[in-house]
Amino acid sequence: MNAQTAQTRPDYGIDAPGLVRFFFIAGTVALVICLVAILSSILGQIPKIIVGVLFGIGATYLLGMGCFMLYFSKVEKLKEQEKLLNLVRWSGQELVLDVGCGRGLMLIGSAQRLSSGKAIGIDLWQQQDQANNHPTATQINAQIEGVADRVEVKTADMRELPFPENHFDVVTSNWAVHNLEAEIDRQAALSEIVRVLKPGGIVLLADIVNQAEYAEYLRRCGMEDLQLHNNTSRDAVLKVITFRSFAPSAILARKAVSQSDER
């Protein structure tokens, strides 16, 4: 029995698996040190309390973050996908590009909203960004979800998209652009997204950081009607517990239509 026939439900993977692993390993180590300190017959009462409390707090935070990231990967991001894709007014005929598609969450969600359209996903399939990231995994998920005939995956760099100008009706990207560490590379990716988008086309860009930077650059690239979709109260809490490194939100924008485009 191969993996395709054995898998009966789509698996959209765990985001940042190395970081999740770190949280659980470091949290477990901190918990062990906490218990050893508390049970130690060598340390005095006050050192026991100090070491136990400090490592207990550390263990709680680290293990809690590991559980939180697993929950977001397996539950919350599926809910977020539905909310985000519902922001687009679909006709069913769109040609869609998903940038950094991974195992296909946004790609397949887009394809489910198409009748005669098509959804193309590109990725470099890096394992540090998503567990078991591979085009075969995306194709299996598309088959399970019943949209394999409307989905295509390619290996490509978001900074050099292998498509002509003014080609796509909708471009989506979910938690991918931030993986480019240099601002100049993120700007290159956004420039490419705007380049391949048709005049009047829609970009739906979701990420966990850098949203203000993206919005400003998209405006400079000629995108209009920019809207930020977030959860203010939730994001305030997430920024505190993650030291401002995780606050997911999305930008919806439309590419300007010039007079020559209208003709």
Give a short summary of the structure.
The protein is of the alpha/beta class. It is 47% helix and 18% strand. The longest helix is centred in the first third of the chain and has 41 residues, at 45-85.
Give a verbal description of the structure:
This protein has 263 residues and is of the alpha/beta class. It is 47% helix and 18% strand. A 7-stranded mixed sheet has the order 3-2-1-4-5-7-6, with helices on both faces. The longest helix has 41 residues, at 45-85.
List the helices and strands and how they pair.
Blueprint: H1 3-6, H2 17-39, H3 45-85, E1 95-99, H4 105-111, E2 118-123, H5 135-144, E3 151-155, E4 168-174, H6 183-196, E5 197-207, H7 211-220, E6 223-229, H8 232-241, E7 249-255, H9 259-262
Parallel strand pairs: 1-2, 1-4, 2-3, 4-5
Antiparallel strand pairs: 5-7, 6-7
Helix pairs in contact: 2-3, 3-4
Strand count, sense and closure of the main sheet? 7 strands, mixed
User: How many helices in DSSP terms?
Assistant: 9
Low-confidence stretches: none
Tell me the distance between the termini: 56 Å
The geometry reads as elongated
